[in-house]
């Protein structure tokens, strides 16, 4: 077996494949964009300044999920891709997506998977924004995925 399922014995039937945080991993479009119009409606009610909402305003909305502060803090750290303490529309949509995943009963990762990095933040994947970067190889040495640890989730 090769292609997208190389290194997986069960292919798309592996437990958890395409669910939770791994949903959209092999999609061409950013999976969050599917619900982004709904998230944008919420975002613009939070009075963004220069295209960003403050932590205070975002927190009020995120608290509506009734998730524990520890979980919301973890989601914030993953979603604030540029580490500026504010969320732009894509970062806010990502935070809402991660909240949705958690409310569906799935775990939130410690590192943001590459396929969830917002499109406008793809160019920010460089050392001063991420404390660690790992490329995962299959048994033949071919890259199959990568993970990035945001600057505030680890030591710079």
TrEMBL record:
CDD domains with a match to the protein in the record: EH (cd00052)
Domain spans labelled EH: 35-123
Record's GO cellular component terms: cytoplasm; plasma membrane
Any single GO BP term: endosomal transport
Keyword vocabulary terms for this entry: Calcium, Metal-binding
Residue ranges of every copy of the EF-hand domain listed in the record: 67-102
One Pfam family recorded for the sequence: EH
Protein's recorded name: Uncharacterized protein
GO molecular function: calcium ion binding
């Amino acid at each position: 077996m090769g292609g997208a399922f190389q290194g997986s014995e069960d292919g798309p039937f592996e437990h958890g494949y395409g669910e939770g945080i791994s949903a959209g991993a092999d999609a061409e479009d950013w999976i969050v964009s599917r619900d982004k119009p709904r998230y944008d409606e919420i975002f613009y009610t939070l009075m963004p300044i220069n295209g960003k909402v403050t932590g205070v305003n975002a927190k009020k909305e995120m608290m509506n999920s009734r998730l524990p502060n520890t979980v919301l803090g973890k989601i914030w750290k993953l979603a604030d891709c540029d580490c500026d303490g504010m969320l732009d529309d894509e970062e806010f949509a990502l935070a809402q997506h991660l909240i949705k995943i958690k409310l569906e009963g799935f775990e939130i990762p410690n590192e943001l998977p590459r396929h969830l990095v917002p499109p406008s933040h793809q160019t920010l994947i460089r050392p001063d924004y991420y404390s660690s970067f790992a490329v995962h190889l299959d048994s033949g040495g071919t890259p199959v995925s990568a993970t990035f640890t945001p600057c505030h989730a680890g030591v710079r």
